[in-house]
Amino acid sequence: MEDYLQAFKNKKKKTYPKNDFKNLENIKNHISKILLSIIFFLVSIIYTNLSDKNLLLYKEHVLTESLPFTKIKGWYEDLFGEILPDPPTDQAVFNGRLVYKDIEDYQNGSKLKVNNHTLINNLTGGIVVYVGEKEDFGNTVIIQGADGTDIWYGNLTNISVKLYDYIAANTLLGEVDGEDLYIVIKKEDKYLKYEEYQNT
């Protein structure tokens, strides 16, 4: 009888491999992101259908301006806790200032002359809000920093980040395609030069 009870207890005990918990956590993160997207979408529909004035305000502000993802994230975390997982610990991170041979003004930012195929790390932690081709800048990565600063890194190749990644400061973004790196820094609708931003 005791053998039967012990066998029954052993059957009841179910062990879960470590990876199952990781998968469950990933599924939970994806479900919460999907639910938040649905909630935002439904609230937007309700708000715009209340009146024509709301629709015009929505078009004017939401559809034409860049959303401050980092501010929204901070507000959400104050109310409900962490929404995004911690940045992966296996990301390539290196410290050090960007070494350049020459710098000149370029459109709203700066063009830095660097060594051929220099590795580029980001100046501040934040969310990747754009990865793609930009006219006059080539392959570009735009990061919205935790301080609300948008920083463009242009003329990159072998880009190692993806859209909506939350990355720490000094994370490897990619390498310069040739010797010209374009950097545009925008804070509160004001463009800053690279050297000016470094001195703040």
Topology, please?
Elements: H1 2-12, H2 18-50, H3 52-61, H4 69-80, E1 102-106, E2 109-113, E3 119-121, E4 126-134, E5 138-145, E6 149-154, E7 156-157, E8 166-167, E9 172-176, E10 180-187, E11 190-192, H5 194-198
Antiparallel strand pairs: 1-2, 2-10, 3-9, 4-5, 4-8, 5-6, 6-10, 7-9, 10-11
Characterization of this structure:
It is built from 5 helices and 11 strands; from the N terminus they run ααααβββββββββββα. It is α+β, with helices and mostly antiparallel strands. The chain has 2 domains: 2-65; 102-198, Glucose Permease (Domain IIA) (Distorted Sandwich). Strands 1, 2, 4, 5, 6, 8, 10 and 11 form an 8-stranded antiparallel beta sheet that branches. A 3-stranded antiparallel beta sheet has the order 3-9-7, with no helix packed on it. It is flat. Residues 87-94 have low confidence and may be disordered.
Identify the CATH class of the largest domain: Mainly Beta
Tally of separate domains: 2
Oligomer: single chain
Q: From N to C, what is the helix and strand string?
A: HHHHEEEEEEEEEEEH
**Beta-strand percentage?**
25-35%
User: How many strand elements?
Assistant: 11
Residue share in helices? 25-40%
Named CATH topology of the largest domain: Glucose Permease (Domain IIA)
Annotated CATH homologous superfamily of the largest domain: Glucose Permease (Domain IIA)
State the CATH architecture of the largest domain: Distorted Sandwich
